[in-house]
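Notes on consecutive records. When two proteins share a document, each keeps its own sequence and its own token line. Never mix them. Below: protein one.
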Amino acid sequence: MNNRRHQTIPTLIWHSIIQTMVLAVLAGLLISFIYGFVHYYKDTREHIEDLAVLLTISASIEDSTDIVDEQMQFLSKKEQGIESILFYTTSQPIVDANQLRDDWKNALFANRVSFNYPVVGDPTNKIISPKEDALVGYLNITLNVATLRENWVKKNLPLWLITTLLAIMWALFILRKLNWPSKDIANLTIACDMVIKNPELEHLPLIQQRFEFQELTKIKQAFIALFDRLQIAKQDYQALAVFEQQLHHKDVSLDVQLHNFQSMITHELKTSLNAIVGGLQLLDDDKLSHEQKDAVDIIQEGSDKLVVTLEQIIQLNQIQKGQISLHVHEFNPLQLIADLLADFEPAIKKKGLTLVSQVHHTDYILEGDAERIQQILAILISNAIKFTPAGQIAIASQLIHFDTSNRWQISVKDTGIGIDSNFIEDIFNPFFQVDSSQTRQYEGSGIGLPVVKQMTQLMGASIEVESTLGVGTTFTVTIPLSNQHQSQQQQHLHGLKVIYFYYHEKGLLVDELQHLGAEVVCYQHEQLIIDEMQKTQFDMLMFAEDVFPRKAALLASRIRAAETEYRTLLVFWYPQQQAQYLADFEFGLKTAGIDYCEVAKYEDKALSDLLKSWLTWA
């Protein structure tokens, strides 16, 4: 993890300039020292050599001892770098190792350097033979390099100080110039901080710039443009939120209207059809002519189809709303298949088809909702008869046994017209027709297969379709069922007293509660609920899925106001499709006194576990 502190641009500039200045001063001092002192050492060495030449000339003259001595004393006093001047008579010079090194090495690293110069006899002396050796001895001059360095540093120190001061002044001048954009950057940073710390800021603060730097101007313009775009996006978002809220209210209103319309239209149609069917049943066939009987039969057949279609539409809506419950009891699968064959045998014979039964198991007792299973198979057989002009319809039954459950697989196979593979997924959509034209050959409303699909999902079953156009279709339903000895439902909620408030329909939840052993009392009117709760103590008051949140909140407020000692747990159930709007009504319901808002559950164990957890917390 990077723990480095964030730094500002002005701070970075200051640090960079100071570091550069220190580095430049140190480099300048070091370079000037090395170059300057090496050059000074070289000049001093050459000067010493010139003096040595003069001394050797003086020493080579006869009777010049006093003169040479005076010269040596004079040089030792005047030339501060000279440590000693010696004259010795040997045939070989005394070699100093430093004398052999380069000048820059001696200047930087040596403390003393000795130089040897030969002294020869006067060549103008006629007494000395030219053949004789003219070497008299050697002149040794020792140079104190450390003293030279010290004197040179003292001499150049004021110059160094002046140079360093000038460098500092120049760096400060550069810093001052670089500080101009830094101030503008700081102003821009202040504006950024204000925007960050104030999310509701509607107007951008004034960003002052003393110098119109092109880059900073572009950054400022981009920042202003982004802020303006943000404000526009914020306004659009607020407008969208308002529009979404309006749509939500419209959706809720449309849901209510659709619910009321479905209830009204199904009620009206069912009432009218019941009147038609009842009127047809009251007709005396003995008093009708042959033509009248044919007309009555046609009306009877049409009304029967309408009744079946209407029942399927009502059933499909109830399944989608979660208002259909499963009634599990023992049944014999062989008997169920036999009843179906008997019911459809007349229609199959009338159309000239062959009905084949293929049972791959012995007699067995299963537990499940036989009525729903029979309805599913009846729709599949009815469709097979409708879409099979000739040939046969085969019903196959197979049982697969497990330790604690069974899987019942039933297939309905026909030799009919088949289904195009492009429409396999669409046939389970409500009101879908492969041939939707008004002149289509086969009648139907497109409701049967959607009911089958919804029913199988309700039972936890599955349905598969295999079809070849012009060859036939096979529908296979696989249903998980319990063994008879393993399916005795425990009374998980035995002793629980529930009062249930609903608006139009009780729904599936009441059946599930009663199936789990709970004692349930149902009412449609608020005053009856309050009167009943004053007479009897209930563990829970449940609001059905079709009760509006506002109505539930009003009733909850009245109940909480009337309570004295005993407190009833209040639960508001809502359908799954309203889960996305939970935040819109949950707070108001809980403020009114409702304890829990939950999606309606219809699985026995999940429902019983949830209710028990609420009672435990209460």
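Protein two starts on the next line and is unrelated to protein one.
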Amino acid sequence: MTATVPTAVPHPGERPPVTMFGPDFPFAYDDFLRHPAGLGQVPATEHGTEVAVVGGGLSGLVTAYELMKMGLRPVVYEADRLGGRLRTVGFDGCDPELTAELGAMRFPPSATALQHYVDLVGLATEPFPNPLSPATPSTVVDLKGVPHYARTLDDLPPVYRRVARAWQSCLEEGADFTAMNRAIRERDAPRVRDLWVRLVARLDNQTFYGFLCESEAFASFRDRELFGQVGFGTGGWDTDFPNSVLEILRVVYTEADDDHRGIVGGSSRLPLGLWEHAPDKPVHWPRGVTLAELHGGAPRPAVTALHRTAGNRITVTDADGGIRSYRAVVFTAQSWMLLSKINCADELLPIDHWTAVERTHYMESSKLFVPVDRPFWRDQDPVTGRDTLSMTLTDRMTRGTYLLENGPDRPAAICLSYTWADDSLKWLPLSANERLEVMLASLGEIYPGVDIRRHLIGGPVTVSWENEPYFMGAFKANLPGHYRYQRRLFTHFMQDRLPADKRGIFLAGDDVSWTAGWAEGAVQTALNAVWGVMRQLGGACDPTNPGPGDVFDAIAPVELPED
């Protein structure tokens, strides 16, 4: 199936923004979303047809919302709470406006399909206080017991600037950074594909650490160690050293780790907003219809079984004993659920897709937040003139500490620790209060004169995503050699290529996307699934606004040989 690939053309003299346009699948999802022709339509005879959507996270609710707009009837199943890993929580006994983001908390401007839905439900964003960012009053980098206070990179010792230059040299020499970044910025799909084909073939078997080691710029072990502990953008990246370098390149090419913004009032307002949002011009349904209304206010409970049944239908059994059969099912939950908590027969997916699900590698992640009386960290030491407390990057147990405020005299929050992978597992056996004590002791070594405890106005809230029963990890991170598996999962929505008895269930979610861990990937794969369901039910896109499946052959992800 082929169609013309839309290309964004900037105004003369205008430098186009970077978006998550590829590199694996350079499709302009944001243009697709804002086109006046809409995403497509299904035959009138299909209006009201039920489509199961398993998982009420962002991907599931984007899928359900767009299917509802087309005149279909999505039936959302959710095992836990709506929102998935966009999970905003409060603190017991505190102002309800004081919240903590246990899941996604920062989003890049390059996530333009995500931004479409942020704007749709009327949410505002604000700069997120990453290390050394303009939104951060100050940053302390504490390594091997030596703290360095900084407001900008230039305030740090020369070795940090040397490592920053080494990273840029490594990207340029080993991954054609400038050329790829420009091609993505200009939405030059043929150029993106040409560059990426060569890089995937060369780097699929390479770890992030191995990529650094091959660069002359990182000949020094000390420089590699420091880079791992401090990293780029959001902080240290040594927890990603064993992962495929392709995962890292996707982040840096698309500037996914730059200029982050948070959602005012909490990220969970986005999925909950979609649940309650009435489309302007729904097909088939009366004006004012919402997902909440179609579901009587609450989604169906957890799915316990998925089986193929007569007539190429898929039968869904839920935790309340409900049994319904569907011609189309979109599965947006964590993919390992198909291996453990949901009873599935082998015939549900092609065998190569089962292998890809089984080989999916998930990263652990932990956070702990505390509420405080005010942003006391802005108090200045009368002797040094420095902030009392700073956003902190360290090689101690806490790793990353973030300071989150809502105004100079209002209660605030501190993310005392944000960790990934092995650093997250270190916290797993500890209760919230045990974690708090270790974190306060660790930060006390960096800030010996600061009594954080006296500013606390409530107890801690914490999460270890690897211990959450419906997630079993924070996000997917491919290992070397996993490109072929990821391609199978991402392209699953192209079901014309599958046998008839393997069609009808569509995989979506950020772990199916090329940008796992980023909400943009959840949105993009949801839109792929919407296209797939529409096609399954005999629908099509308007010729002036081809969908991801219509242009697939022209921009399909690189296909590596398997023999």
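For the record: Residues 1-12 have pLDDT under 50 and may be disordered.
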